[in-house]
Amino acid sequence: MSQTITLYVDGACRGNPGLGGWGAYVITEQGEHKLSGGAKLTTNNQMELTAAIEGIQFCPIDAKLIIWTDSNYVKQGITEWIHNWKKKNWKDVKNPDLWQKLDATCQNREIEWNWIKGHAGHEGNEMADQLANRGADDFLKEQNEKHSGIEKKKIEDDWLLNDPFGLDIDEEHDTEAFENDDPHSTQGQENISVQQHPHIKITPAKVDLHGPRQLILDTETTGFYFQDGDRIIEVGAVEMINRKLTGSSIHIYINPEKPVGDSVEIHGITDEFLADKPKYQEISNVLLDYLKGAEIIAHNASFDMNFLDAEFERVKLPKLSNVCEVTDTLAMAKNKHPGQKNSLDALVRRYEIPARDRTYHGALLDAEILADVYLAMTGGQVAFEMDALSQDNHSAGNNPNNIHIHADLPIIYALDAELEAHQKWIKTIAEKNGEPSIFEKLE
Prior knowledge:
- By secondary structure, the protein is an alpha/beta fold.
- It has two domains: 120 residues, Ribonuclease H-like superfamily/Ribonuclease H (Nucleotidyltransferase, domain 5, 2-Layer Sandwich), CATH 3.30.420; 209 residues, Nucleotidyltransferase, domain 5, CATH 3.30.420.
- The chain is 44% helix and 19% strand.
- The protein contains 18 helices and eleven strands.
- A six-stranded mixed beta sheet has the order 6-9-8-7-10-11, with helices on both faces.
- It is globular.
- It catalyses: DNA(n) + a 2'-deoxyribonucleoside 5'-triphosphate = DNA(n+1) + diphosphate; Endonucleolytic cleavage to 5'-phosphomonoester.
């Protein structure tokens, strides 16, 4: 063997499926190499596999590779499960193309596969995680730059004449005029991402949506009883507007100023890992700014809110429950599925949410999972309302038991400049056709 090379590989996905990224941190005798990439619509497992493939392909064929991954799916798949998959000719195997590519990449190589606990402070694993997220960010930036070029060409065209109904207008361009006037726009959340501490990780929204913010939130703590002095050690939340994840999230590890004790068996976060993390007073203002005004959605919400309220009170800030609405998905689940298990794991199985590795709980991971569960639990309500609203008015009027549905929808008024542009367009249409347009007749 010419040399021994150590690889840390990781994948990331925002939505699962959704925007994803992969990262490979390669340590050779000559130095370090940082590889990353992304994909528009992918899954976490696909990115984990891609990271391993790309990392291995980067290395010389005669080198001994020591690979560390926090994905049991990858580690057990390549070392154990793959033999039966081959015997069954890859029948019923998810991601067979990637598994076959990984298998081919590993041929004629000496590889030692190892599992490592994710988000536990290991430098190599943390670097791979950063690279995976960087891969997703870089991919999105590249796509946006390409999109901007297309958008610029659209603006140069006289779209008002060529496309009077706006059927080809990109949604992102169409909403730009309202960003400064809609109080619920995610525009401006990027201002929050000015990080006060290097361990505060805020991801800005990737899409501009308008409506009330919902934040699916989870915490990890040193114990179960805030009354006895247990503290928060991790906060994670993802943003949703109009039942769509915006891509914005917040993730913070916090030094609790006390030992984590036996709770390490639940979350895997050690005292050593938390030693250099910020104390609550250092991150409290940024965290409150991100959360306040939103509807907080949490599983067993009273647990998280009691801890957060206690922490904010401790640093002389308002209780979070006083500046946010709160929705408890555990209470929703118990009402929807009485007498059944309603833990997050049970709901994941019940609603067939794509599995993620939850060997240890993690706040941001659990928040992402809960977002999927919440959408699945509440999905039927949307279908019901659409069915009810589409009923024939005549039959509905004759039905004494008809259901009236009231939806509080935001009213977005046209700007003066837009009204003026509309009038100019109507006149242009009239001049072009030699008669008033249908729009002018309606007015």
